[in-house]
Amino acid sequence: MKIGIVCYPTFGGSGVVATELGKALAKAGHKIHFITYSQPTRLDFFNENLYYHEVDIRSYPLFQYPPYELALASKLVDVVKYEKLDILHVHYAIPHASSAYMAKQILKTEGIDIPVVTTLHGTDITLVGKDASYAPVVTFSINASDGVTAVSEDLKKDTYEHFKITQDIEVIPNFIDLERFKKQKKEHFKMAICPNDEPLVVHTSNFRKVKRVDDVIRIFNNIRKEIPAKLLLVGDGPERNNIEALCRQFHICDDVRFLGKLEAVEEVLSVADLFIMPSEKESFGLAALEAMACEVPVISSNAGGLPELNINGETGYMSKPGDIEDMTKNALHILDKNNLPTFKKNALARAKLFNITEIMPLYENMYQKILDKK
Ligand code: GMT
Prior knowledge:
By secondary structure, the protein is an alpha/beta fold. The chain is built from 14 helices and 13 strands. The strands form two sheets. Strands 3-2-1-4-5-6-7 form a seven-stranded parallel sheet, with helices on both faces. Strands 10-9-8-11-12-13 form a six-stranded parallel sheet, with helices on both faces.
């Protein structure tokens, strides 16, 4: 198949899922055309089946906001027509699903019927999509798609609850490349961070409010009161200054390191003992799956799709968002030397169920079903 993939190319779960899916499909022999406004972060190598088309976003003095949706729709028309694509797969409804709809209508006038698959990732539904400024367009473009997928049962339920959806939504969970995300020997790194072999706690996110990174600091501060430990924070975003201020307030700066938007997150996870994801909302929690694949147990909230990934008492623990005391108690239980090896083993066993080799064919089947109907 010749498949066009549209996504947000920068750091963020939906872009990562879209890029990894495209890479896996290319490996399976499909021709994959990425259509984005900049090179996807994880697409930094050559493969004969991978193509990249940059969306040109022109700015004119009249435009206070350059119309990205129109530039994307025009690019989609061009790529579908000249590369003879079979199907378009857009990740994150806003504005990709509506741009794809517009491109589809334009192409129809030229006798080309291009099916569109939309994958819902989370905030496009739970935060941004519900906003009255976007809701009618989101509802329309989901319903106008030829296929719709959601990354968890919870996100599917949420979508049906909050929008008038007439389409079937298929749940295809997020996945992990176990060849990349696996525990590696990085003992020198562990020694540098934890010179006295202290347990290492890790959090990865885009530091937005919804991630409750301040809870990570509060939990870590409580852990530190009981045992020596170190915390690594991967990522960056709007809450960074508040988080730094909280570390200073708790006098724990010597035990906390901000690593920024690190690409090789699997190297950090290879030496971690515990991953914390206390999010207010989380449709799936790809970062937690990446941790589990590297044998790291997870303390998470029970928001959204997290219960579909983190098994309470087995791969980690879940608490209500904001329940710092419960999360601290559970973190200390996991970090106990008598418990840690079992949690690590269980985390890896659970991650193996989300192996990309198992999940990618579900998308392939969906494309084929849609093409067969044409
Ligand atoms: O978590 C974010 O803020 C980024 C967001 C995105 O769209 O990139 O992540 C969402 O999609 C990921 C991939 O499907 C999921 O693993 C995340 O759980 C989801 N984030 C939220 O629902 C908050």
